[in-house]
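Researcher: Next entry in the queue.
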Amino acid sequence: MVVVATFSSNIHRVQQVINAAVACGRKVLVNGRSMVANTVVARQLGYLQIPAETLIELRELRDLPRSEVVVITTGSQGEPLSVLSRMAMDDYRKLPLETGDTVILSSSFIPGNEKAISRLINLLYRRGAEVFYEKTSEVHVSGHASQEELKLVLSLTRPHCFVPIHGEYRHLVKHAQLATSMGVAAERVQVLENGQPLLVSINGLRLEERVATGRIFIDGKGVGDVGMMELRDRRHLANHGLVMVLLGINQNDGAILYGPELVTRGFVVEEENTEFLDEARQELCQMLEEHSLEVLSDWEEMQAEVRKTLRRFFNRHIDRRPLILPVIFEQ
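Model: Structure for this entry, 331 residues:
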């Protein structure tokens, strides 16, 4: 069985796969929600030509030799819930992969998806499949228009105003320059960034005041209430752990009434590092003895000194940077 994974929006690529399947005498199974939906619409509009006897349903697969079937599906970017990913994890009983099957990833590696795609390829090989993708095989040509094709579109449409909207910033700039070279006036060509509104009127183009854009973090029932500071602390906790310092001080004479006690989470195993934590406590005690009553009675100053002392100690001894949370009680 041959499995071809591509973007469901790339109808021309789907047609190419169908043509190849017909030429080889194979039946075609279209699988995946978006792939099926786009195929139905494309056929209704006349953009996709599939011989009636070529297309099969999933239930018909068991009655055909696997060597006579081509499956067109999605998941070429390693999307975790896609049909291809489920097949790779042996979690799609209706369409299992077997040793000797061929999987073709007909797409480029979109930046940011490399790790997911590499994991997918490894899983496919674990199922015994042979995998072809752009870095090892000449099975994919970009579906994005080249410069000459973009020129053709500009010459056919002859836009009065032009705003490139797809690609990274360097792509937008080059596309804008191309439009200018094709006769669009420079004052009617505008490169935008996310959050930059553009007013289009009979008078031309005008930039409006920027608006806030970007990702909004949803945490439980809260939407956008967790800011960058909170996310930074969470990352710090995840990477380095937490050390809580419990300390009781007499506000009148600066005497230590309790502690310092160190409580750690995700930093070191307390039972196995008692000597190390005792050394840290001694370091804190020495710091407290060296400071004046004025410093000891200032909560913020005291917390800063505790953090600084422990940060230096941990960095010097084990080269770690836990989140240090002093809790100071005064009496």
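Model: The mean pLDDT is 85.
Researcher: Noted, moving on.
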